[in-house]
Design goal:
Layout: H1 2-23, E1 30-36, H2 41-54, E2 58-64, H3 67-75, E3 81-84, H4 90-100, E4 107-119, E5 127-128, H5 129-135, E6 143-145, H6 151-159, E7 170-171, H7 175-181, E8 189-193, H8 203-210, E9 212-214, E10 217-219, E11 222-224, H9 228-232, E12 239-246, H10 253-262, H11 264-272, E13 276-277
Parallel strand pairs: 1-2, 1-3, 5-10, 6-7, 6-8
Antiparallel strand pairs: 3-12, 4-8, 4-9, 4-12, 4-13, 10-11
Helix pairs in contact: 10-11
C-alpha cells in the first residue's frame, strides 16, 4: 500500500514539474512587444521576422512609439524592450538602474543616420554643419522634422548641443509623409531617418529615394554622405547607433532577441536593410 501511495506521489510530482517547465519563461517561446520609433521600424520588423522564423513558438509585435515614451515604459515596467538612438544622460542612466534594478548595458546592433534632403529638382546640393546649427535657431523654420519628440529631432538636438525645446523647426508628421509632401515647400529641408529609405531592393523605398536629393553634410571643409563608408567609420556627422534596452533580468525572450540581433545572423538582417551592422564579422578563407 505504501508503494502504491509513493508511486502516486511521484506521478503527481512529475506532472507538476512538466507543467512548470512548459509554462516557464523562455527565449524560444512566448509573446513580446518591441517599442520603436517610426524612423527605424523597418529594421526592427526585419529582425523580429527573422527571430520568429528561427523560433516559431515566439510571437513578436513591433509597436511604433516615440523613443522617449518607450524609455518611460521600460522604466515603469509597461514594456520589456525598446529601441533607442540618442545617448541617455547620466541622470537617465541612474534612473534606469534604480527603477529597473539592472546595470545599464545598451545592446548596440546597427549604425543608422539622420538624413537631410530636398526635393529632387532643388538646386541645393549640400549643407554645412554650421548651416544646420544656425538654421535651427532661425524663425524661418526651414528644417522640417517628422514630429515633436521624435528620434530624429532628439538626436539632431543632441548633436548640435541644444535641447529639442530650444530648436525652431516645422513639422510634417511621419517620415514617408514628409518625403511625399516636401515638394510643396521647395525652400524647406527635410529631416528623416535613413532606415526609411535604406532598403536597397524594396520597391517602396526605391520610390521614395527617387523623389529626393540627399544632401552631403560638410564639416571641417570635408563632405560626408550617409553611405556605407560614412556609417562604417562614423564619419558622417549625424551617424547614430541603434541599441536595445530591456528590463528583463533572465535569459528570456527579450534577451534572446537581443542576442540574436547582435550575432551574425541578426547582423546579416541589418545589412540587408541597408544599414551598417554594428558588430562586423569577418569571413576568413584559408588558401591551400
Amino acid at each position: 500500500m505504501n508503494r502504491v501511495f509513493l508511486y502516486f506521489l511521484l506521478c503527481i510530482s512529475f506532472l507538476g514539474c512538466s507543467k512548470n517547465e512548459s509554462t516557464a519563461p523562455s527565449y524560444n517561446k512566448g509573446n513580446m512587444t518591441i517599442l520603436t520609433d517610426e524612423s527605424f521600424k523597418s529594421v526592427v520588423e526585419a529582425l523580429a521576422e527573422g527571430y520568429m522564423i528561427s523560433y516559431p513558438d515566439t510571437k513578436i509585435k513591433v509597436l511604433t512609439k516615440k523613443e522617449d515614451l518607450g524609455f518611460l515604459d521600460i522604466l515603469n515596467d509597461k514594456a520589456r524592450i525598446a529601441v533607442m538612438s540618442r545617448d541617455l544622460s547620466p541622470s537617465e542612466i541612474k534612473l534606469y538602474e534604480d527603477q529597473v534594478d539592472l546595470k545599464f548595458t545598451p545592446a548596440r546592433f546597427a549604425a543608422d543616420a539622420v538624413v537631410f534632403f530636398v526635393p529632387k529638382n532643388s538646386e541645393k546640393s549640400s549643407i554645412t554643419f554650421d548651416e544646420i546649427k544656425e538654421g535651427l535657431q532661425s524663425d524661418n523654420k526651414n528644417f522640417v522634422f517628422d514630429g515633436t519628440n521624435s528620434s530624429n529631432l532628439n538626436f539632431v538636438a543632441q548633436k548640435v548641443g541644444k535641447k529639442p525645446r530650444d530648436l525652431k523647426f516645422s513639422i510634417i508628421s511621419g517620415n514617408v509623409n514628409l518625403i511625399e509632401e516636401l515638394n510643396k515647400y521647395p525652400d524647406k529641408i527635410g529631416v528623416i531617418g535613413l532606415n526609411t529609405i535604406s532598403r536597397p531592393y524594396d520597391k517602396d523605398a526605391e520610390k521614395l529615394r527617387e523623389m529626393i536629393k540627399i544632401l552631403p553634410v560638410v564639416k571641417d571643409n570635408k563632405s560626408f554622405l550617409p553611405d556605407a563608408n560614412g556609417l562604417r567609420e562614423m564619419k558622417y556627422p549625424f551617424t547614430r547607433v541603434l541599441y536595445f534596452i530591456a528590463n528583463e533580468g533572465g535569459f528570456n525572450i527579450a534577451n534572446g532577441f537581443i542576442r540574436y540581433s547582435c550575432t551574425q545572423l541578426g547582423q546579416m538582417v541589418v545589412e540587408k536593410e541597408g544599414l551598417q551592422p554594428y558588430n562586423i564579422y569577418r569571413r576568413e578563407v584559408q588558401m591551400r
